[in-house]
Specification:
Structural class: mainly beta
Oligomer: single chain
Number of strands: 8
Protein backbone atom coordinates (compact mmCIF):
# COMPACT_ATOMS: atom_id res chain seq x y z
CA UNK A 1 0.00 0.00 0.00
CA UNK A 2 1.17 3.52 -0.79
CA UNK A 3 1.55 5.48 2.45
CA UNK A 4 2.10 8.94 0.90
CA UNK A 5 2.57 10.45 -2.54
CA UNK A 6 5.07 13.31 -2.31
CA UNK A 7 4.66 15.81 -5.12
CA UNK A 8 6.48 19.09 -4.49
CA UNK A 9 9.27 18.64 -7.07
CA UNK A 10 8.89 20.43 -10.39
CA UNK A 11 10.98 17.81 -12.22
CA UNK A 12 12.02 14.20 -11.74
CA UNK A 13 13.43 13.19 -8.36
CA UNK A 14 16.65 11.28 -9.02
CA UNK A 15 18.23 10.84 -5.58
CA UNK A 16 16.38 9.48 -2.54
CA UNK A 17 17.66 8.63 0.93
CA UNK A 18 16.05 7.74 4.26
CA UNK A 19 17.60 8.87 7.53
CA UNK A 20 18.89 6.02 9.71
CA UNK A 21 15.85 6.24 11.98
CA UNK A 22 13.55 6.51 8.92
CA UNK A 23 12.04 9.74 10.25
CA UNK A 24 13.11 11.77 7.20
CA UNK A 25 13.19 11.15 3.46
CA UNK A 26 15.62 13.26 1.45
CA UNK A 27 14.86 13.80 -2.24
CA UNK A 28 17.09 15.48 -4.79
CA UNK A 29 15.69 16.40 -8.17
CA UNK A 30 16.35 17.79 -11.61
CA UNK A 31 14.32 20.87 -10.54
CA UNK A 32 17.49 22.07 -8.72
CA UNK A 33 16.23 21.30 -5.23
CA UNK A 34 16.76 18.99 -2.27
CA UNK A 35 13.68 18.47 -0.14
CA UNK A 36 13.25 16.95 3.31
CA UNK A 37 10.04 15.06 4.03
CA UNK A 38 8.55 13.83 7.31
CA UNK A 39 7.96 10.13 6.61
CA UNK A 40 5.19 9.73 9.22
CA UNK A 41 3.06 12.60 7.89
CA UNK A 42 4.25 12.94 4.28
CA UNK A 43 4.70 16.68 4.85
CA UNK A 44 7.47 18.71 3.24
CA UNK A 45 9.49 20.16 6.13
CA UNK A 46 12.47 21.78 4.41
CA UNK A 47 13.78 22.66 0.95
CA UNK A 48 17.16 23.79 -0.37
CA UNK A 49 17.46 25.32 -3.84
CA UNK A 50 20.53 25.26 -6.06
CA UNK A 51 21.63 26.78 -9.38
CA UNK A 52 21.84 23.43 -11.19
CA UNK A 53 20.01 20.12 -11.18
CA UNK A 54 20.65 17.81 -8.24
CA UNK A 55 21.42 14.24 -9.19
CA UNK A 56 22.40 12.74 -5.82
CA UNK A 57 21.30 13.42 -2.24
CA UNK A 58 22.14 11.32 0.78
CA UNK A 59 21.64 11.64 4.54
CA UNK A 60 24.21 10.13 6.91
CA UNK A 61 23.17 7.18 9.07
CA UNK A 62 22.87 9.36 12.18
CA UNK A 63 20.40 11.62 10.36
CA UNK A 64 22.47 14.71 11.18
CA UNK A 65 23.83 15.82 7.79
CA UNK A 66 22.87 15.69 4.10
CA UNK A 67 25.25 15.71 1.14
CA UNK A 68 23.90 16.75 -2.25
CA UNK A 69 25.53 17.21 -5.61
CA UNK A 70 24.69 17.83 -9.20
CA UNK A 71 25.63 19.06 -12.65
CA UNK A 72 27.52 22.08 -11.27
CA UNK A 73 30.23 19.73 -9.90
CA UNK A 74 29.67 20.98 -6.33
CA UNK A 75 28.98 18.95 -3.22
CA UNK A 76 26.84 20.85 -0.70
CA UNK A 77 26.25 19.84 2.90
CA UNK A 78 23.47 20.87 5.24
CA UNK A 79 22.64 19.92 8.79
CA UNK A 80 19.67 17.94 9.95
CA UNK A 81 17.14 18.15 11.51
CA UNK A 82 15.57 20.39 8.89
CA UNK A 83 15.88 24.17 8.83
CA UNK A 84 18.97 24.43 10.99
CA UNK A 85 22.07 25.41 9.02
CA UNK A 86 23.20 25.34 5.43
CA UNK A 87 26.90 24.83 4.86
CA UNK A 88 28.64 26.26 1.81
CA UNK A 89 29.59 23.89 -1.03
CA UNK A 90 32.24 21.41 0.03
CA UNK A 91 34.22 21.13 -3.17
CA UNK A 92 34.22 21.71 -6.89
CA UNK A 93 34.64 18.38 -8.63
CA UNK A 94 36.48 17.79 -11.89
CA UNK A 95 33.52 16.02 -13.49
CA UNK A 96 29.83 15.51 -12.82
CA UNK A 97 28.72 13.86 -9.60
CA UNK A 98 26.64 10.74 -10.20
CA UNK A 99 26.16 9.31 -6.68
CA UNK A 100 26.78 9.90 -2.99
CA UNK A 101 27.22 7.51 -0.08
CA UNK A 102 27.01 8.02 3.68
CA UNK A 103 29.66 6.76 6.09
CA UNK A 104 28.05 4.58 8.80
CA UNK A 105 30.39 6.17 11.36
CA UNK A 106 29.07 9.67 10.60
Amino acid sequence: DVRHSLSAHGDAPVGLSFSGDERWLISGALDKSVRVWDVATGLLVDAHHFENSIIAARVNTQGTRVAAGGWDRLVSLFDMPPATTTIEPLASLLSRLTATEANPEG
